[in-house]
Amino acid sequence: MSYDQFSLVDIQTQFSLTIHQSKSLFEDVTPIEISDHLKITLKENIPLALNINTEKARSEMLIVPMLIELRKLLHRTVSLFSGVSLNVDENRGLTGLCDFLICNSPNHLYVNRPVIAIVEAKNENIKSAIPKCVAKMYAAQQSNQGDLHGNIMGIVSTGSSWKFLILAENSVFVDYDEYLIEIPEKILAVAVDHVRKVNS
Questions:
Q1: Which of 81, 112, 157, 183 is least surrounded by CB atoms within 10 angstroms?
Q2: Domain limits of the chain?
Q3: By C-alpha distance, which of 74, 84, 77 is closest to 117?
Q4: 8 Å CB contact between 140 and 113
Q5: pLDDT class of 148 with cuts at 50, 70, 90
Q6: Which region holds residue 148: left if phi is over 0, alpha if psi is between -120 and 50, else beta?
Q7: What is the C-alpha to C-alpha distance for residues 184 and 62, in angstroms, rounded to an integer?
Q8: What is the pLDDT of residue 200?
Q9: Sign (positive/negative) of CA torsion 179, 118, 185, 113?
Q10: At 166, which helix (H) or strand (E)?
Q11: Nearest in space to 98 (alpha carbons), one of 85, 87, 107, 111
């Protein structure tokens, strides 16, 4: 078994997690100022990526520029990994690749202290990617035992739509809202706020 094979039922039974979705989790988060570079990049990339409309185009043209901006907003104190293995426990199926991983360390030599797991939604289907995201969040939490006391954030994105999840101890909170790429200031504010809370 690997991350791709989990269902929400599997996750709840095997990892004793409770999943909640009943409210907007980040409505009080204030949008953050973004760079002119990202504004110009997205103005060019959004229509292009949506017209090409492949997972690769959405990933490269929409998700990657946002994550690079996130790293800049956090003054490069975090590391960004793409397509890396997160092999935590093979016996429980916690193995496989992460589309993107943000770690609470500037080190790019190896994965260390993951704090945000980002999963691309295949075929633009946010809901179908949630189980895989939760499994990766749980794996990140397990790899951080004794190191981070903060929560793990998960993000499922099609590039044009972004949904946030939080894993706090044994509870997974799935945000009721989805955020569109046209409001990058809000999307990035939520992610920045999470990392800062972990470090506070």
A1: 183
A2: 3-199
A3: 84
A4: no
A5: low
A6: beta
A7: 10
A8: 81
A9: positive
A10: strand 161-168
A11: 85
